[in-house]
């Protein structure tokens, strides 16, 4: 509690810092008043009924309905009041405004890597405009971290393999400390940095002054082609893989791999194609297989950094919101030799036997099917 007290005495630099401090002091006042009431009652009764005191001890009451109701209803009312008060603050904190500026954050022993919307990367520093909502999308490359800015009264755990979001609106220009609030290794105490809140015009000037090769989505498109993703997820590909136009933010059918059960016999279920889904499709493709497709997607775990996956997600998100009808495509998946697949994705996948249909993974090239051949598929 003393740590929270020190935080509450710091500058209030976000839109809800004052509300959170008010709630904090409200809880403290209730706790202090209740504790003092109990202490005074204990002292009063101990003195009045001490040994040797001349008081009437005959016929002590066995129960008192008024006292029982008081010590039940009053604490219940106080606790429920605090619950409603805190809930009224919590729900706005988890509802990200549609106009919020998105910043990508990657925690790594022992540093913070942060990327601005225009693609500019920062290390242990974050520059933000005052008066504009900001949403942080955070993940970790190694162990559990916690992103904590005391002046904003915001903190969230940063978990490996998951995306979490934290939003706030900085209000007061200034320089504020950034910490990792979760023990993450020997140099945990050095995993800190600074958040610079600037006037909007000053921020735009700073943003334009940095070296930026491309936007996040444009860098994602470059990675999409560099790693051979376009060789499978395109209309003129000979490999049956789902098209990605317009899937982001929409429900998509998937089939979960079950031991001893062919993927074709697994019932499909719907999941939301959000950041988590795209991330897992890249690093854990066998977890959720697009319904109607074979589990041939190679994993890019340990081949792509988390910041690269952020870029790919931004690119997929930018690929429109409406899908066009799928054009007929041939399915030559099982006719690809090892060198063909390596040419597409840059490495030989571990599940090459499943891709080629041969135990050795070096299946001979088969004749190309007719252009009008089309296999039944589930549209997602």
Can you describe this structure in just a few lines?
Helix content is 33%, strand content 18%. With 380 residues, the chain is α+β, with helices and mostly antiparallel strands. The strands form three sheets. The protein has a five-stranded mixed beta sheet, with helices on one face.
Question: Secondary-structure map with pairings?
Answer:
Elements: H1 2-8, H2 17-48, H3 65-94, E1 101-108, E2 111-115, E3 121-123, E4 125-129, E5 134-140, E6 145-149, E7 154-158, E8 164-168, E9 174-180, E10 192-198, H4 200-209, H5 216-226, E11 251-256, E12 269-272, H6 275-283, E13 288-290, H7 306-317, H8 338-345, H9 352-356
How would you portray this structure in words?
- The protein is α+β, with helices and mostly antiparallel strands and 380 residues long.
- It has helices at 2-8, 17-48, 65-94, 200-209, 216-226, 275-283, 306-317, 338-345, 352-356; strands spanning 101-108, 111-115, 121-123, 125-129, 134-140, 145-149, 154-158, 164-168, 174-180, 192-198, 251-256, 269-272, 288-290.
- It has three domains: 2-51 and 63-94, Helix Hairpins, CATH 1.10.287; 101-209, Immunoglobulin-like; 217-356, Cytochrome c-like domain (Cytochrome Bc1 Complex, Chain D, domain 2, Orthogonal Bundle).
- It contains nine helices and 13 strands.
- Strands 3-2-1-5-8 form a five-stranded mixed beta sheet, with helices on one face. Strands 4-10-9-6-7 form a five-stranded mixed beta sheet, covered by helices on one side.
- Helix 5 packs across helix 7.
Number of domains: 3
Largest sheet: 5 strands, mixed
**Strand segment count:** 13
Oligomeric state:
single chain
Q: For this structure, what is the CATH class of the largest domain?
A: Mainly Alpha
Radius of gyration: 29 Å
In spatial order, strands of the major sheet run 3-2-1-5-8
